[in-house]
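Intended use. Records like the one below are meant for learning the mapping from a protein sequence to its folded structure. Do not use them to infer anything beyond what is encoded.
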Amino acid sequence: MISKDLLEMLVCPESHQSLTIARAELVERINRGIEKGQVNNAGGTKMVKPFDGGLLRADGKVFYPVLDEIPVLLADEAILLEQLDD
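Structure written out for the chain above:
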């Protein structure tokens, strides 16, 4: 997926917090929300395609998708995790 060296250089574009690779359980939780039509990105666009993986901000509040092994580090593309059902 993402090399360790690259991951060490990546930060959240808004807060500059560090990022880690999201655990499979979180990606599955987000994808369940997408299937239910309950997940929008920060720009307000409803997500319709599941994610293969992503990066989690250090505070655990924001998920950045990884598409075709490329991290999408745009603030409007982020998934705010507060919108997910538990």
